[in-house]
Amino acid sequence: MTLLRDPLLNKGTAFTEAERAALGLRGLLPPCVLTMETQAERVLTNLRALPTDLEKYVALNALHDRNEALFFRVVVDNIDEVQPIIYTPTVGLACQKYGLIFQRPRGMFISSRDRGQIAEILKNWPYPAKLIVVTDGERILGLGDLGANGMGIPVGKLSLYSACAGVHPEQCLPVVLDVGTNNEELLNDPYYLGLRERRLTGEAYDSFVDEFMQAARKTFPDVLIQFEDFANHSAFKLLHKYRDEACVFNDDIQGTAAVALAGLFSALRVSGGKLKDQKILFLGAGEAATGIADLVVSAMMAGATEAEALRRNWLVDSRGLVVSGREGLSGHKLRYAHAGQAPIADFLTAIKTLKPTAIIGVAAVGGAFTPEVLKAMAELNEQPIVFALSNPTSKAECSAEDAYRYTEGRALFACGSPYDPVTLSGRTFVPRQGNNSYIFPGVGLGVIASRSRLVTDEMFMAAAHALADCVGKEDLAQGSLYPALPRIREVSVRIAAAVADVAYQRGLADGPAPNDVKALVQSQMYEPKY
Ligand SMILES: NC(=O)C1=CN([C@@H]2O[C@H](COP(=O)(O)OP(=O)(O)OC[C@H]3O[C@@H](n4cnc5c(N)ncnc54)[C@H](OP(=O)(O)O)[C@@H]3O)[C@@H](O)[C@H]2O)C=CC1
Ligand SMILES: CC(=O)C(=O)O
Ligand SMILES: [Mg+2]
Fold it and tell me: In angstroms, rounded to a whole number, what is the distance separating the alpha carbons of residues 384 and 256?
Protein backbone atom coordinates (compact mmCIF):
# COMPACT_ATOMS: atom_id res chain seq x y z
CA MET A 1 0.00 0.00 0.00
CA THR A 2 2.90 2.33 0.79
CA LEU A 3 4.22 1.75 -2.70
CA LEU A 4 0.89 2.63 -4.30
CA ARG A 5 0.92 5.89 -2.36
CA ASP A 6 4.46 6.89 -3.31
CA PRO A 7 4.19 9.00 -6.48
CA LEU A 8 7.83 8.42 -7.39
CA LEU A 9 7.42 4.63 -7.40
CA ASN A 10 3.74 4.07 -8.11
CA LYS A 11 2.78 2.54 -11.47
CA GLY A 12 -0.88 2.00 -10.56
CA THR A 13 -2.60 -0.46 -12.85
CA ALA A 14 0.66 -0.93 -14.78
CA PHE A 15 2.35 -3.02 -12.08
CA THR A 16 3.03 -6.35 -13.77
CA GLU A 17 1.82 -9.70 -12.43
CA ALA A 18 5.34 -10.50 -11.28
CA GLU A 19 5.70 -7.14 -9.50
CA ARG A 20 2.32 -7.53 -7.85
CA ALA A 21 3.37 -10.92 -6.50
CA ALA A 22 6.82 -9.82 -5.36
CA LEU A 23 5.74 -6.50 -3.81
CA GLY A 24 2.65 -7.59 -1.90
CA LEU A 25 0.29 -5.79 -4.26
CA ARG A 26 -2.01 -8.69 -5.12
CA GLY A 27 -5.60 -7.81 -4.32
CA LEU A 28 -4.74 -4.13 -3.92
CA LEU A 29 -5.24 -3.43 -7.64
CA PRO A 30 -7.92 -4.44 -10.15
CA PRO A 31 -6.73 -7.53 -12.02
CA CYS A 32 -6.17 -6.07 -15.48
CA VAL A 33 -2.59 -4.93 -16.18
CA LEU A 34 -2.47 -1.82 -18.36
CA THR A 35 0.43 -0.42 -20.34
CA MET A 36 1.69 3.08 -19.72
CA GLU A 37 0.39 4.04 -23.18
CA THR A 38 -3.14 2.98 -22.26
CA GLN A 39 -2.91 4.77 -18.93
CA ALA A 40 -1.77 7.94 -20.72
CA GLU A 41 -4.63 7.69 -23.22
CA ARG A 42 -7.08 7.37 -20.34
CA VAL A 43 -5.60 10.44 -18.65
CA LEU A 44 -5.96 12.46 -21.85
CA THR A 45 -9.52 11.29 -22.44
CA ASN A 46 -10.50 12.38 -18.96
CA LEU A 47 -8.61 15.63 -19.25
CA ARG A 48 -10.23 16.61 -22.53
CA ALA A 49 -13.67 15.95 -21.09
CA LEU A 50 -13.15 18.57 -18.36
CA PRO A 51 -14.88 21.87 -19.06
CA THR A 52 -12.33 24.36 -17.69
CA ASP A 53 -8.58 24.78 -17.66
CA LEU A 54 -8.60 25.11 -13.87
CA GLU A 55 -10.26 21.70 -13.56
CA LYS A 56 -7.62 20.31 -15.93
CA TYR A 57 -4.94 21.85 -13.73
CA VAL A 58 -6.44 20.17 -10.65
CA ALA A 59 -6.67 16.82 -12.45
CA LEU A 60 -3.06 16.98 -13.63
CA ASN A 61 -1.92 18.02 -10.18
CA ALA A 62 -3.69 15.00 -8.71
CA LEU A 63 -1.96 12.76 -11.25
CA HIS A 64 1.38 14.38 -10.36
CA ASP A 65 0.70 13.48 -6.71
CA ARG A 66 -0.25 9.90 -7.62
CA ASN A 67 2.14 8.77 -10.30
CA GLU A 68 5.01 11.02 -11.39
CA ALA A 69 6.21 8.85 -14.27
CA LEU A 70 2.76 8.84 -15.86
CA PHE A 71 2.32 12.57 -15.21
CA PHE A 72 5.61 13.38 -16.94
CA ARG A 73 4.90 10.93 -19.79
CA VAL A 74 1.66 12.80 -20.46
CA VAL A 75 3.38 16.19 -20.24
CA VAL A 76 6.32 15.25 -22.48
CA ASP A 77 4.18 13.59 -25.16
CA ASN A 78 1.55 16.37 -25.20
CA ILE A 79 3.60 19.42 -24.34
CA ASP A 80 1.71 21.81 -26.66
CA GLU A 81 -1.58 20.87 -25.02
CA VAL A 82 -0.45 20.46 -21.42
CA GLN A 83 2.10 23.23 -20.90
CA PRO A 84 -0.55 25.99 -20.97
CA ILE A 85 -2.30 24.17 -18.12
CA ILE A 86 0.59 23.40 -15.78
CA TYR A 87 2.33 26.68 -16.66
CA THR A 88 1.22 30.09 -17.95
CA PRO A 89 -1.58 31.07 -18.32
CA THR A 90 -3.51 28.54 -16.17
CA VAL A 91 -0.92 28.39 -13.39
CA GLY A 92 -1.67 32.07 -12.75
CA LEU A 93 -5.32 31.32 -12.08
CA ALA A 94 -4.33 28.26 -10.04
CA CYS A 95 -2.18 30.49 -7.80
CA GLN A 96 -5.06 32.93 -7.36
CA LYS A 97 -7.30 30.02 -6.34
CA TYR A 98 -4.58 28.06 -4.55
CA GLY A 99 -6.40 27.86 -1.20
CA LEU A 100 -9.66 26.81 -2.82
CA ILE A 101 -8.24 24.03 -5.00
CA PHE A 102 -5.70 22.79 -2.43
CA GLN A 103 -5.64 19.01 -2.08
CA ARG A 104 -2.15 17.93 -1.06
CA PRO A 105 0.93 19.98 -0.27
CA ARG A 106 3.82 19.89 -2.73
CA GLY A 107 7.17 21.50 -1.97
CA MET A 108 8.25 23.23 1.24
CA PHE A 109 6.60 26.17 2.95
CA ILE A 110 9.13 28.08 5.04
CA SER A 111 7.45 30.85 6.99
CA SER A 112 8.86 33.69 9.01
CA ARG A 113 7.73 31.80 12.13
CA ASP A 114 10.42 29.25 11.24
CA ARG A 115 13.23 31.74 11.79
CA GLY A 116 16.15 30.12 13.59
CA GLN A 117 15.01 26.63 12.58
CA ILE A 118 15.13 26.61 8.79
CA ALA A 119 18.05 24.17 8.57
CA GLU A 120 16.18 21.79 10.86
CA ILE A 121 13.01 22.10 8.80
CA LEU A 122 14.76 21.50 5.47
CA LYS A 123 15.85 18.13 6.82
CA ASN A 124 12.19 17.09 6.65
CA TRP A 125 12.47 17.00 2.87
CA PRO A 126 12.97 13.33 2.07
CA TYR A 127 14.86 13.66 -1.24
CA PRO A 128 18.36 14.82 -2.21
CA ALA A 129 17.52 18.18 -3.81
CA LYS A 130 19.86 19.48 -6.49
CA LEU A 131 17.58 22.22 -7.72
CA ILE A 132 15.42 24.63 -5.75
CA VAL A 133 13.01 27.11 -7.30
CA VAL A 134 12.12 29.62 -4.61
CA THR A 135 9.68 32.51 -4.52
CA ASP A 136 8.40 34.82 -1.82
CA GLY A 137 5.19 35.24 -3.83
CA GLU A 138 5.39 39.02 -4.12
CA ARG A 139 5.28 39.31 -7.96
CA ILE A 140 3.55 36.22 -9.30
CA LEU A 141 3.59 36.58 -13.11
CA GLY A 142 1.91 39.95 -13.71
CA LEU A 143 -0.64 39.25 -10.97
CA GLY A 144 1.19 40.89 -8.10
CA ASP A 145 1.41 39.78 -4.47
CA LEU A 146 -0.14 36.33 -4.01
CA GLY A 147 1.75 35.45 -0.82
CA ALA A 148 2.06 31.73 -0.10
CA ASN A 149 -0.31 31.01 -3.02
CA GLY A 150 2.73 31.68 -5.20
CA MET A 151 3.78 28.07 -4.57
CA GLY A 152 2.11 27.16 -7.86
CA ILE A 153 4.96 28.87 -9.71
CA PRO A 154 7.94 26.89 -8.29
CA VAL A 155 5.86 23.72 -8.72
CA GLY A 156 5.09 24.58 -12.36
CA LYS A 157 8.64 25.64 -13.17
CA LEU A 158 10.07 22.45 -11.69
CA SER A 159 7.58 20.33 -13.62
CA LEU A 160 8.99 21.93 -16.76
CA TYR A 161 12.54 21.17 -15.58
CA SER A 162 11.70 17.46 -15.47
CA ALA A 163 9.53 17.41 -18.59
CA CYS A 164 11.56 19.73 -20.81
CA ALA A 165 15.11 18.97 -19.70
CA GLY A 166 14.91 15.67 -17.85
CA VAL A 167 16.04 16.93 -14.44
CA HIS A 168 14.99 14.04 -12.19
CA PRO A 169 11.83 14.91 -10.19
CA GLU A 170 13.55 13.60 -7.06
CA GLN A 171 16.16 16.35 -7.41
CA CYS A 172 13.60 19.15 -7.58
CA LEU A 173 12.44 21.12 -4.55
CA PRO A 174 9.81 23.89 -4.84
CA VAL A 175 9.98 26.40 -1.99
CA VAL A 176 7.81 29.29 -0.94
CA LEU A 177 9.22 31.72 1.60
CA ASP A 178 6.09 32.87 3.37
CA VAL A 179 6.96 36.30 4.70
CA GLY A 180 3.30 37.38 4.81
CA THR A 181 1.31 39.23 2.18
CA ASN A 182 0.04 42.75 1.66
CA ASN A 183 -2.83 41.48 -0.48
CA GLU A 184 -5.97 42.46 1.44
CA GLU A 185 -8.16 40.06 -0.48
CA LEU A 186 -5.99 37.13 0.58
CA LEU A 187 -5.73 38.33 4.16
CA ASN A 188 -9.52 38.20 4.26
CA ASP A 189 -9.90 34.96 2.29
CA PRO A 190 -11.05 32.13 4.61
CA TYR A 191 -9.23 29.59 2.42
CA TYR A 192 -5.89 31.42 2.30
CA LEU A 193 -3.21 29.04 3.58
CA GLY A 194 -0.35 31.42 4.24
CA LEU A 195 0.51 33.58 7.23
CA ARG A 196 -2.19 36.17 7.83
CA GLU A 197 0.17 39.02 8.41
CA ARG A 198 1.80 41.81 6.45
CA ARG A 199 5.05 41.23 4.63
CA LEU A 200 8.36 41.32 6.41
CA THR A 201 10.53 44.16 5.20
CA GLY A 202 14.02 45.59 5.71
CA GLU A 203 16.52 43.79 7.90
CA ALA A 204 13.95 41.25 9.11
CA TYR A 205 13.31 40.16 5.50
CA ASP A 206 16.98 40.15 4.50
CA SER A 207 18.10 38.07 7.47
CA PHE A 208 15.24 35.61 6.98
CA VAL A 209 16.13 35.04 3.32
CA ASP A 210 19.78 34.80 4.29
CA GLU A 211 19.02 32.12 6.86
CA PHE A 212 17.18 30.18 4.16
CA MET A 213 20.07 30.55 1.69
CA GLN A 214 22.67 29.34 4.19
CA ALA A 215 20.45 26.48 5.38
CA ALA A 216 19.59 25.34 1.86
CA ARG A 217 23.22 25.25 0.81
CA LYS A 218 24.23 23.39 3.97
CA THR A 219 21.42 20.84 3.73
CA PHE A 220 21.77 20.27 -0.02
CA PRO A 221 25.43 20.86 -0.94
CA ASP A 222 25.93 22.09 -4.54
CA VAL A 223 22.25 22.89 -4.90
CA LEU A 224 21.27 25.26 -7.72
CA ILE A 225 18.83 27.91 -6.48
CA GLN A 226 16.56 29.73 -8.92
CA PHE A 227 14.94 32.94 -7.68
CA GLU A 228 11.49 33.29 -9.18
CA ASP A 229 8.83 35.97 -9.09
CA PHE A 230 10.27 38.15 -6.36
CA ALA A 231 9.26 41.80 -6.55
CA ASN A 232 11.99 43.84 -8.14
CA HIS A 233 13.00 45.62 -4.93
CA SER A 234 14.09 42.18 -3.66
CA ALA A 235 15.07 40.47 -6.91
CA PHE A 236 18.02 42.65 -7.91
CA LYS A 237 19.29 42.83 -4.34
CA LEU A 238 19.21 39.05 -3.82
CA LEU A 239 20.81 38.30 -7.16
CA HIS A 240 23.67 40.70 -6.51
CA LYS A 241 24.12 39.51 -2.97
CA TYR A 242 24.46 35.81 -3.82
CA ARG A 243 25.52 35.45 -7.44
CA ASP A 244 29.28 35.51 -6.78
CA GLU A 245 29.23 33.16 -3.82
CA ALA A 246 26.45 30.66 -4.54
CA CYS A 247 25.04 28.72 -7.46
CA VAL A 248 22.02 30.97 -8.09
CA PHE A 249 20.29 32.86 -10.84
CA ASN A 250 17.18 34.94 -11.27
CA ASP A 251 14.95 33.54 -13.96
CA ASP A 252 12.91 36.72 -14.47
CA ILE A 253 16.03 38.80 -15.03
CA GLN A 254 18.47 36.38 -16.67
CA GLY A 255 16.32 33.60 -18.15
CA THR A 256 13.98 36.13 -19.73
CA ALA A 257 16.97 38.00 -21.14
CA ALA A 258 18.19 34.92 -22.96
CA VAL A 259 14.84 33.99 -24.47
CA ALA A 260 14.21 37.53 -25.67
CA LEU A 261 17.69 37.84 -27.19
CA ALA A 262 17.20 34.52 -29.00
CA GLY A 263 13.89 35.88 -30.36
CA LEU A 264 15.66 39.00 -31.61
CA PHE A 265 18.28 36.87 -33.35
CA SER A 266 15.48 34.98 -35.12
CA ALA A 267 13.62 38.16 -36.04
CA LEU A 268 16.78 39.61 -37.59
CA ARG A 269 17.26 36.50 -39.70
CA VAL A 270 13.89 37.36 -41.25
CA SER A 271 14.36 41.11 -41.61
CA GLY A 272 18.04 40.93 -42.51
CA GLY A 273 18.93 43.62 -39.94
CA LYS A 274 21.89 43.71 -37.59
CA LEU A 275 21.42 43.67 -33.83
CA LYS A 276 23.68 46.67 -33.26
CA ASP A 277 21.48 48.78 -35.56
CA GLN A 278 18.22 48.06 -33.74
CA LYS A 279 16.55 50.56 -31.47
CA ILE A 280 14.57 48.80 -28.77
CA LEU A 281 11.87 50.45 -26.71
CA PHE A 282 10.73 48.54 -23.64
CA LEU A 283 7.37 49.01 -22.01
CA GLY A 284 8.44 48.26 -18.44
CA ALA A 285 11.71 48.96 -16.67
CA GLY A 286 11.84 46.19 -14.10
CA GLU A 287 13.45 42.76 -13.85
CA ALA A 288 12.51 41.50 -17.29
CA ALA A 289 13.14 44.79 -19.14
CA THR A 290 16.53 45.61 -17.67
CA GLY A 291 17.55 41.94 -17.71
CA ILE A 292 16.82 41.78 -21.42
CA ALA A 293 18.37 45.18 -22.13
CA ASP A 294 21.59 44.25 -20.31
CA LEU A 295 22.03 41.05 -22.32
CA VAL A 296 21.09 42.81 -25.57
CA VAL A 297 23.72 45.48 -24.82
CA SER A 298 26.36 42.76 -24.28
CA ALA A 299 25.37 41.16 -27.60
CA MET A 300 25.38 44.50 -29.43
CA MET A 301 28.90 45.12 -28.15
CA ALA A 302 30.10 42.55 -30.69
CA GLY A 303 29.82 45.44 -33.19
CA ALA A 304 29.39 48.62 -31.17
CA THR A 305 30.80 50.39 -28.14
CA GLU A 306 29.00 50.03 -24.82
CA ALA A 307 27.83 53.66 -25.01
CA GLU A 308 26.40 53.11 -28.51
CA ALA A 309 24.73 49.90 -27.45
CA LEU A 310 23.17 51.43 -24.35
CA ARG A 311 21.78 54.32 -26.37
CA ARG A 312 19.89 51.81 -28.56
CA ASN A 313 17.86 50.58 -25.59
CA TRP A 314 15.17 52.77 -24.02
CA LEU A 315 12.79 52.08 -21.18
CA VAL A 316 9.30 53.34 -20.39
CA ASP A 317 8.15 52.77 -16.82
CA SER A 318 4.97 53.69 -14.94
CA ARG A 319 6.03 57.34 -15.00
CA GLY A 320 7.00 57.55 -18.66
CA LEU A 321 10.27 57.46 -20.56
CA VAL A 322 13.33 56.85 -18.42
CA VAL A 323 15.67 59.77 -19.09
CA SER A 324 18.61 61.35 -17.39
CA GLY A 325 17.72 63.77 -14.64
CA ARG A 326 14.43 62.13 -13.75
CA GLU A 327 14.21 62.06 -9.98
CA GLY A 328 14.10 58.91 -7.88
CA LEU A 329 15.16 56.40 -10.56
CA SER A 330 16.03 52.98 -9.11
CA GLY A 331 19.54 51.69 -9.61
CA HIS A 332 18.65 49.11 -12.25
CA LYS A 333 17.28 51.83 -14.59
CA LEU A 334 20.23 54.19 -14.41
CA ARG A 335 22.21 52.69 -17.33
CA TYR A 336 19.25 53.52 -19.57
CA ALA A 337 18.54 57.04 -18.28
CA HIS A 338 19.85 58.71 -21.41
CA ALA A 339 20.81 62.36 -21.65
CA GLY A 340 19.57 64.79 -24.31
CA GLN A 341 16.01 63.57 -24.40
CA ALA A 342 13.09 65.39 -22.81
CA PRO A 343 10.72 63.33 -20.65
CA ILE A 344 7.82 61.68 -22.51
CA ALA A 345 4.75 60.60 -20.58
CA ASP A 346 3.18 58.03 -22.89
CA PHE A 347 4.31 55.04 -24.89
CA LEU A 348 2.83 56.06 -28.26
CA THR A 349 4.55 59.44 -28.18
CA ALA A 350 7.78 57.68 -27.18
CA ILE A 351 7.45 55.47 -30.28
CA LYS A 352 6.82 58.43 -32.58
CA THR A 353 9.75 60.33 -31.07
CA LEU A 354 12.36 57.58 -30.78
CA LYS A 355 11.34 55.55 -33.86
CA PRO A 356 12.22 52.11 -32.48
CA THR A 357 12.64 49.02 -34.65
CA ALA A 358 11.42 46.81 -31.79
CA ILE A 359 9.02 47.13 -28.88
CA ILE A 360 9.16 44.69 -25.97
CA GLY A 361 6.28 44.62 -23.51
CA VAL A 362 7.20 43.54 -19.98
CA ALA A 363 5.10 45.82 -17.79
CA ALA A 364 2.11 43.56 -17.06
CA VAL A 365 -0.24 46.16 -18.55
CA GLY A 366 -2.76 44.17 -20.58
CA GLY A 367 -3.62 45.70 -23.96
CA ALA A 368 -0.92 48.39 -23.77
CA PHE A 369 0.09 47.70 -27.39
CA THR A 370 -3.04 49.35 -28.75
CA PRO A 371 -3.96 49.34 -32.45
CA GLU A 372 -2.40 52.84 -32.62
CA VAL A 373 0.88 51.57 -31.14
CA LEU A 374 0.98 48.64 -33.58
CA LYS A 375 0.09 50.83 -36.56
CA ALA A 376 2.79 53.33 -35.58
CA MET A 377 5.36 50.52 -35.50
CA ALA A 378 4.16 49.31 -38.92
CA GLU A 379 4.50 52.81 -40.36
CA LEU A 380 8.05 53.14 -39.07
CA ASN A 381 9.29 49.68 -40.02
CA GLU A 382 8.95 47.27 -42.90
CA GLN A 383 9.07 44.43 -40.38
CA PRO A 384 8.47 45.75 -36.86
CA ILE A 385 9.57 43.53 -33.99
CA VAL A 386 6.74 43.23 -31.46
CA PHE A 387 7.24 41.11 -28.34
CA ALA A 388 4.28 41.05 -25.94
CA LEU A 389 5.94 39.12 -23.14
CA SER A 390 3.83 39.85 -20.05
CA ASN A 391 2.02 36.95 -18.37
CA PRO A 392 -0.54 35.58 -17.98
CA THR A 393 -2.66 36.19 -21.09
CA SER A 394 -4.78 38.85 -19.34
CA LYS A 395 -1.62 40.94 -18.99
CA ALA A 396 -0.34 40.45 -22.55
CA GLU A 397 0.36 43.79 -24.25
CA CYS A 398 -1.54 42.58 -27.32
CA SER A 399 -2.92 39.38 -28.76
CA ALA A 400 -1.19 37.63 -31.64
CA GLU A 401 -4.16 38.42 -33.84
CA ASP A 402 -3.91 42.15 -33.15
CA ALA A 403 -0.14 42.13 -33.65
CA TYR A 404 -0.52 40.68 -37.15
CA ARG A 405 -3.73 42.49 -38.07
CA TYR A 406 -2.61 46.04 -37.25
CA THR A 407 0.78 45.59 -38.93
CA GLU A 408 -0.73 44.02 -42.08
CA GLY A 409 0.96 40.73 -41.23
CA ARG A 410 4.42 42.32 -41.11
CA ALA A 411 5.11 42.02 -37.37
CA LEU A 412 7.84 39.70 -36.14
CA PHE A 413 5.97 38.63 -33.07
CA ALA A 414 6.54 36.68 -29.86
CA CYS A 415 4.26 36.28 -26.84
CA GLY A 416 4.85 35.39 -23.19
CA SER A 417 1.75 33.20 -22.94
CA PRO A 418 0.57 30.98 -25.79
CA TYR A 419 -1.62 32.09 -28.70
CA ASP A 420 -3.17 29.93 -31.40
CA PRO A 421 -2.08 30.34 -35.02
CA VAL A 422 -3.57 33.33 -36.82
CA THR A 423 -4.73 33.30 -40.44
CA LEU A 424 -4.72 36.65 -42.20
CA SER A 425 -5.26 37.23 -45.92
CA GLY A 426 -4.69 33.56 -46.61
CA ARG A 427 -1.39 33.38 -44.69
CA THR A 428 -1.14 31.44 -41.43
CA PHE A 429 1.21 32.70 -38.71
CA VAL A 430 2.32 30.43 -35.88
CA PRO A 431 3.36 32.64 -32.95
CA ARG A 432 5.58 31.04 -30.32
CA GLN A 433 6.35 31.93 -26.75
CA GLY A 434 9.12 34.30 -25.82
CA ASN A 435 9.05 32.73 -22.41
CA ASN A 436 11.97 31.86 -20.16
CA SER A 437 10.60 28.29 -20.16
CA TYR A 438 12.69 27.76 -23.32
CA ILE A 439 15.82 28.66 -21.34
CA PHE A 440 15.78 27.72 -17.64
CA PRO A 441 15.34 23.94 -18.08
CA GLY A 442 18.43 23.68 -20.29
CA VAL A 443 20.45 26.09 -18.16
CA GLY A 444 19.64 24.12 -15.01
CA LEU A 445 20.50 20.82 -16.66
CA GLY A 446 23.83 22.23 -17.88
CA VAL A 447 24.72 23.63 -14.46
CA ILE A 448 23.80 20.39 -12.68
CA ALA A 449 25.56 18.17 -15.22
CA SER A 450 28.80 20.17 -15.06
CA ARG A 451 28.42 20.78 -11.31
CA SER A 452 29.19 24.41 -11.94
CA ARG A 453 29.82 26.46 -8.80
CA LEU A 454 28.19 29.59 -10.20
CA VAL A 455 25.74 30.65 -12.89
CA THR A 456 27.08 33.48 -15.06
CA ASP A 457 25.69 35.93 -17.61
CA GLU A 458 27.99 34.32 -20.16
CA MET A 459 25.97 31.14 -19.72
CA PHE A 460 22.76 32.99 -20.58
CA MET A 461 24.44 34.46 -23.65
CA ALA A 462 25.46 30.93 -24.68
CA ALA A 463 21.91 29.72 -23.99
CA ALA A 464 20.46 32.47 -26.19
CA HIS A 465 22.71 31.50 -29.09
CA ALA A 466 21.99 27.79 -28.61
CA LEU A 467 18.24 28.42 -28.61
CA ALA A 468 18.43 30.65 -31.67
CA ASP A 469 20.48 27.97 -33.47
CA CYS A 470 17.57 25.55 -33.03
CA VAL A 471 15.23 27.73 -35.09
CA GLY A 472 14.88 26.46 -38.64
CA LYS A 473 13.95 28.20 -41.88
CA GLU A 474 10.60 26.42 -41.78
CA ASP A 475 9.91 28.01 -38.38
CA LEU A 476 10.79 31.49 -39.63
CA ALA A 477 8.69 31.02 -42.77
CA GLN A 478 5.56 30.69 -40.64
CA GLY A 479 6.44 33.58 -38.33
CA SER A 480 7.78 31.40 -35.49
CA LEU A 481 10.80 32.89 -33.75
CA TYR A 482 11.35 29.82 -31.58
CA PRO A 483 11.46 26.08 -32.24
CA ALA A 484 8.33 23.98 -31.82
CA LEU A 485 7.68 22.93 -28.21
CA PRO A 486 7.71 19.18 -28.95
CA ARG A 487 11.44 19.63 -29.73
CA ILE A 488 12.10 21.09 -26.28
CA ARG A 489 14.14 18.18 -24.88
CA GLU A 490 16.49 18.32 -27.86
CA VAL A 491 16.66 22.12 -27.49
CA SER A 492 17.41 21.79 -23.77
CA VAL A 493 20.28 19.39 -24.49
CA ARG A 494 21.83 21.99 -26.83
CA ILE A 495 21.39 24.75 -24.26
CA ALA A 496 22.70 22.56 -21.44
CA ALA A 497 25.79 21.58 -23.45
CA ALA A 498 26.47 25.25 -24.28
CA VAL A 499 26.10 26.22 -20.62
CA ALA A 500 28.28 23.33 -19.43
CA ASP A 501 30.92 24.34 -22.01
CA VAL A 502 31.09 27.79 -20.41
CA ALA A 503 31.39 26.19 -16.96
CA TYR A 504 34.32 24.04 -18.12
CA GLN A 505 36.04 26.86 -20.01
CA ARG A 506 35.80 29.22 -17.04
CA GLY A 507 37.00 26.70 -14.47
CA LEU A 508 33.64 26.73 -12.69
CA ALA A 509 32.85 23.07 -13.26
CA ASP A 510 33.76 20.15 -11.08
CA GLY A 511 36.74 18.60 -12.89
CA PRO A 512 38.00 18.70 -16.48
CA ALA A 513 35.68 18.79 -19.48
CA PRO A 514 34.65 15.36 -20.72
CA ASN A 515 35.31 14.51 -24.38
CA ASP A 516 31.64 14.71 -25.18
CA VAL A 517 29.77 17.32 -23.14
CA LYS A 518 26.50 16.65 -24.95
CA ALA A 519 26.70 12.95 -24.08
CA LEU A 520 27.36 13.83 -20.44
CA VAL A 521 24.28 16.03 -20.39
CA GLN A 522 22.11 13.41 -22.07
CA SER A 523 23.30 10.68 -19.71
CA GLN A 524 21.80 12.62 -16.78
CA MET A 525 18.34 13.07 -18.22
CA TYR A 526 15.29 11.53 -16.62
CA GLU A 527 13.01 9.67 -19.01
CA PRO A 528 9.47 9.17 -17.71
CA LYS A 529 8.94 5.45 -18.06
CA TYR A 530 8.39 2.44 -15.80
N1 LIG B 1 7.83 36.03 -21.00
C2 LIG B 1 8.64 35.80 -19.99
O3 LIG B 1 9.46 34.88 -20.01
C4 LIG B 1 8.58 36.67 -18.80
C5 LIG B 1 7.58 37.57 -18.63
N6 LIG B 1 7.56 38.35 -17.53
C7 LIG B 1 6.40 39.22 -17.37
O8 LIG B 1 6.79 40.57 -17.43
C9 LIG B 1 5.97 41.33 -16.58
C10 LIG B 1 6.85 42.18 -15.69
O11 LIG B 1 7.70 41.39 -14.91
P12 LIG B 1 8.95 42.04 -14.15
O13 LIG B 1 9.80 42.81 -15.07
O14 LIG B 1 9.58 40.96 -13.38
O15 LIG B 1 8.18 43.02 -13.15
P16 LIG B 1 8.73 44.30 -12.44
O17 LIG B 1 7.78 44.60 -11.36
O18 LIG B 1 10.17 44.14 -12.12
O19 LIG B 1 8.62 45.44 -13.58
C20 LIG B 1 7.43 45.94 -14.06
C21 LIG B 1 7.73 47.22 -14.76
O22 LIG B 1 6.55 47.67 -15.42
C23 LIG B 1 6.43 49.05 -15.19
N24 LIG B 1 5.05 49.50 -15.32
C25 LIG B 1 4.00 49.27 -14.51
N26 LIG B 1 2.91 49.90 -14.96
C27 LIG B 1 3.27 50.53 -16.09
C28 LIG B 1 2.60 51.36 -17.02
N29 LIG B 1 1.30 51.66 -16.87
N30 LIG B 1 3.30 51.84 -18.06
C31 LIG B 1 4.59 51.55 -18.22
N32 LIG B 1 5.30 50.77 -17.37
C33 LIG B 1 4.63 50.28 -16.32
C34 LIG B 1 6.95 49.27 -13.79
O35 LIG B 1 7.26 50.64 -13.63
P36 LIG B 1 7.96 51.25 -12.31
O37 LIG B 1 9.39 50.82 -12.42
O38 LIG B 1 7.76 52.70 -12.48
O39 LIG B 1 7.25 50.64 -11.15
C40 LIG B 1 8.17 48.35 -13.82
O41 LIG B 1 9.28 49.01 -14.35
C42 LIG B 1 5.07 40.34 -15.84
O43 LIG B 1 3.83 40.30 -16.48
C44 LIG B 1 5.76 39.02 -16.03
O45 LIG B 1 4.84 37.96 -16.09
C46 LIG B 1 8.53 38.33 -16.58
C47 LIG B 1 9.54 37.44 -16.69
C48 LIG B 1 9.62 36.50 -17.77
C1 LIG C 1 7.58 33.55 -17.28
C2 LIG C 1 7.88 34.15 -16.01
O3 LIG C 1 8.84 33.78 -15.36
C4 LIG C 1 7.05 35.21 -15.50
O5 LIG C 1 6.13 35.65 -16.20
O6 LIG C 1 7.30 35.63 -14.37
MG1 LIG D 1 8.77 34.43 -13.36
Answer: 20
Q: How far, in whole angstroms, is CA 426 from its chain's centroid?
A: 33
pTM, 2 dp: 0.98
What are 384-416's pLDDT values in tens digits? 999 999 999 999 999 999 999 999 999 999 999
CATH for the 254-435 domain, from 1.20.1440.170, 3.30.160.20, 3.40.50.720, 3.40.50.40: 3.40.50.720
How much distance in Å is there from the Cα of 358 to the middle of ligand 1? 17
Model confidence pLDDT, tens digit, residues 417-476: 999 999 999 999 999 999 999 999 999 999 999 999 999 999 999 999 999 999 999 999
Asked whether this chain's domains 35-246 and 254-435 adopt the same fold, the reply is yes
Q: Does 252 carry a binding-site annotation? A: yes
Q: What angle do CA 88, 410, 80 make, to 5 degrees?
A: 25
Cα–Cα distance measured from residue 380 to residue 353, given in angstroms and rounded to the nearest whole number: 11
User: Would you kindly state where each structural domain of the chain is located, as residue ranges?
Assistant: 35-246, 254-435
> CA 277, 290, 251, 241: dihedral to nearest 10 degrees?
130
**What span, in angstroms and rounded, lies between the C-alpha atoms of 376 and 383?**
12
Cα 319 from Cα 354, distance rounded (Å)? 17
What are the pocket residues of ligand 1 if the criterion is a CB atom closer than 6 Å to any ligand atom?
139, 141-142, 232, 252, 256, 259, 283-289, 316-319, 362-365, 389-391, 395, 416, 434-436
C-alpha distances out from residue 452 to 13, 459, 508, 510, Å: 40, 11, 5, 6
- Tell me whether residue 33 is exposed, middle or buried, using C-beta atoms within 10 angstroms of its C-beta: 0 to 12, 13 to 18, 19 or more: middle
Q: Please state, in angstroms and rounded to a whole number, the distance separating the CA atoms of residues 343 and 294.
A: 22
Complex-level ipTM beyond the 0.90 threshold: yes
Task: Find out if CATH 3.40.50.10380 is the number for domain 35-246.
Answer: yes
